[in-house]
Amino acid sequence: MKLKIRGLDFSYDSVKALESVSLEVNEGEILGVIGPNGSGKTTLLKCINLTLRPKAGVVLIGGEDVFNMGRRKIAREVAVVPQNSSISFPFTVLDIVLMGRIPHLSRLGREGERDLKTAEEAMRATDTLRFASRPIDGLSGGELQRVMIARALAQEPSILLLDEPTLHLDINHQLEILKLIRKLTGEKGLATIMVSHNLNLAARYSDKLLLLNSGRIYSVGSIEEVLTPENIKNTYKVEVDVRYHEATRSYNVIPIFPIDA
Ligand code: ADP
Predict the structure, then answer these.
(1) Which of 39, 69, 78, 212 is found 20 to 30 A from 32 (Cα to Cα)?
(2) What is the pTM of this model?
């Protein structure tokens, strides 16, 4: 289902964190959200599923306003893979993935056959089924991230929100996770929003980019339109070179030097 946001405003007390943010993400599409620290990226994700309540604006999922949806319905539509998935209790991988089914269970709910089957499918899709019974706190960073994506898939969402999905991963696992997100977004027709500090990976795996600066949209559009040296310089305050790379068929940002304020 399509995600459409119009005129979103959010403030933390006196700090204005988002101002007039509008965007659209279609089914099967990844919108990469970039921008310097404190530009409002995480706040934007939190406003979409009403973890934070926007002061103004509309969030539409498949044409339906999230403000009229109720918590359970929102949780069925929107899955979040958070930035720090530190879980200290030794749940098994299966326990964690089954948590994705909670919004679908009846009130007294224990999981039924269909929930187990959905969790299993999610684990198969993320190649985590083979360690379903392992404790979550014994996994590597890449494995843990795949499990968190499996939990999100088990929710059977239409919208997938990822906050820095490749943070703390080595380059091999960065590519593995982003390929997986790309594949699942296409196969399941998800509208995916991915926040990233890694401009090169965001450029390579997103269909379009949105550059935030001080809570406002500085630029939105195709990778070429958004990832210009001028835009990066004006927002990140860094002089950069942007080059097209033949092998990856994507753009690379090479930081040259920071600009003193
Ligand atoms: P980003 O994810 O781009 O780093 P955030 O969405 O985390 O940006 O933050 C946007 C702005 O809101 C920043 O100025 C930040 O300091 C402020 N902010 C974030 N969380 C809080 C909070 N819980 N209380 C007050 N201000 C906050």
Answers:
(1) 69
(2) 0.95
Structure confidence at residue 1 (pLDDT): 67
For residue 75, give both structure tokens.
């949780």
Q: Which superfamily does 3-258 belong to?
A: P-loop containing nucleotide triphosphate hydrolases (3.40.50.300)
Tokens 């899955």, located at residue = 79
Pocket test for ligand 1, best of 13, 15, 164, 235 (most atoms within 8 A of CB): 15
pLDDT digits (tens, 9 = 90+) for 115-152: 999 999 999 999 999 999 999 988 988 899 999 999 99
* Domain spans of the chain, in order of start: 3-258
Average pLDDT, the chain: 94
- Residue 38 Cβ contacting ligand 1 at under 6 Å: yes
Reported as a single tens digit per residue, the pLDDT across 75-109 is 999 999 988 767 777 899 999 999 999 998 876 67
